[in-house]
Write a structure and sequence with these properties.
Layout (H helix, E strand, L loop, with lengths): L2 H15 L14 E5 L2 E4 L4 E4 L2 H4 L8 H11 L12 H13 L5 E6 L2 H16 L3 E5 L8 H5 L15 E5 L14 H19 L6 E4 L15 H9 L6 E4 L24 E5 L9 E6 H4 L14 H16 L2 H20 L5 E7 L2 E6 L9 H13 L2 E2 L1 E3 L5 E4 L7 H25 L1
Parallel strand pairs: 3-13, 5-6, 5-7, 7-8, 8-9
Antiparallel strand pairs: 1-2, 2-3, 4-10, 9-10, 11-12, 12-15, 14-15
């Protein structure tokens, strides 16, 4: 059997036993079988430059010796315990997170995923406030579980109208498609602030469990608010003593290049932060760091069978140590600036690009029909496929699925960034040429 036939056979087997809604990238889906640094090898035998990092979960890179060895060492000792026993590596990791989190008197609880982390934040805040009313942002994504879907502000990711929460969706910092887009940043922020006040006064009881926000929206296409945006929103929330929950599943640990947690850049000290994904570099993990009074509000028993397990904790400790010892936040800032500048230079001559945005190594490239703001979904899919054909893996997102997501591991080099830019320049030129012919 040839490699291509083997890939096709695997895809057929996938479709025979997996859910129909479990979508994959590309018409001819790719299996990843091996990785090293920022490169992966596919089941097709080709090597690719990985600028998506397992949907931002492979945050440091593939097969990093210090992380691999930490996992191997722990696996040789003990695979599993539970929170009914003391777990040394869990306590050590909680101490590291508590020292760095911009949360007063922090307590840390570990779970297994971002969805479970956000569910935990909802459990805490709804219990503490005796309310199931939540304010979320338009364009937000918080997970695939029942409560997190309820607070997700993207129709394409909202599988059901049923909800355990009463959610009011306020304006996000996504200015490009906002009804306030014509305003400058200060006026835009003021308009969103005033609208939040109006929503609270007219659409809620005022007793609100929490306001939840991603500092940079992930699935929403890396929408990045003006610098004063969240400060203005919090000025309204504080009038009602509404807790601020920062969803850092994608933006945490220095990836933005601006701060260790994304919300710090905006000068906010939230009552809770959710985290997951890259903390264990691909091993399943999640958690919440919250103010002690909020974390301790539960009166019923609660444990986590696998949350905080020794394997994930060992991996995460190694990841945070590696980020610190290799100054990867600075690398994210420096190399991210090279990528951002290069993409903006490409945008200046490519009418297919409506906007380049993001921070550090969270960069979104919104594609539109040339000379309009109409989402170019087909062209986005074409760019994704052409990038793969050229040896580069990137992601996509956005409200309409028309935003390319460029998110390499935090160890990415300047040389790799330049290679990716060269590929993207050729890819977008090719896709635009096709679009121009179509018009």
């Amino acid at each position: 059997m040839t490699v291509d036939n083997a890939e096709a056979s695997l895809h057929q087997r996938h479709r025979s036993v997996m859910p129909g809604w479990l979508t994959t990238y590309y018409d001819d889906p790719l299996e990843l079988v091996e990785g090293s640094g920022r490169h992966v090898t596919g089941g097709d035998g080709r090597t690719y430059l990985d600028f998506f990092g397992g949907l931002l979960a492979t945050m440091v890179g593939h097969d990093i010796p210090e992380i691999t060895e930490a996992i191997r060492r722990q696996a040789g000792r003990l695979l599993h315990s539970s929170t009914l026993y003391l777990i040394r590596s869990q306590i050590e990791l909680a101490e590291k997170i508590a020292r760095r989190a911009p949360v007063d008197n922090p307590r840390v609880f570990f779970v297994n995923s971002g969805s479970e982390a956000v569910e935990t934040a909802f459990l805490l805040t709804t219990t503490a406030r005796r309310s199931n009313q939540v304010i979320a942002l338009r364009g937000s994504y918080h997970g695939r579980s029942f409560g997190t879907v309820a607070a997700t502000g993207i129709r394409g990711w909202s599988a059901t109208a049923l909800s355990p929460l009463q959610v009011t969706y306020s304006h996000s910092g996504y200015k490009y498609r906002s009804p306030f887009a014509h305003l400058d940043d200060a006026a835009f922020t003021a308009a969103c602030r005033d609208e939040l006040q109006t929503m609270i006064d007219t659409s809620t009881s005022g007793d609100i469990a929490c306001y939840i926000a991603e500092p940079i929206q992930g699935a929403g296409g890396f929408a990045t608010p003006p610098d004063d945006f969240f400060t203005a929103m919090k000025s309204v929330l504080d009038r009602y003593d509404i807790p601020f929950v920062s969803d850092e599943v994608q933006s945490g640990w220095g990836r933005t290049g601006r701060s260790y947690f994304g919300i710090e850049h905006y000068g906010i000290r939230p009552q809770a932060i959710t985290f997951a994904k890259g903390l264990a570099n691909g091993i399943s993990i999640g958690g919440v760091v919250a103010e002690a009074d909020l974390m301790n509000c539960l009166t019923a028993n609660s444990i986590s069978t696998a949350g905080g397990n020794p394997i994930a904790m060992s991996a995460a400790n190694a990841v945070l140590d590696y980020i610190e010892s290799h100054d990867l936040q600075d690398n994210a800032d420096r190399v991210g600036a090279i990528l951002r500048a290069g993409l903006e230079e490409i945008a200046s001559t490519c009418p297919l690009i409506g906007e380049v945005r993001g921070s550090g190594l969270m960069i979104g490239v919104e594609l539109v029909e040339p000379n309009t703001r109409t989402p170019a979904v087909g062209h986005t899919n074409a760019a994704l496929a052409e990038a793969r054909a050229a040896g580069l893996l990137i992601g996509k997102g956005g409200l309409a699925g028309n935003v390319l997501r460029v998110t390499p591991p935090m160890t990415v080099t300047e040389s790799e960034a330049q290679t990716a830019l060269e590929i993207l320049r050729d890819v977008l030129s090719k896709v635009y040429a096709t679009a121009a012919v179509g018009h």
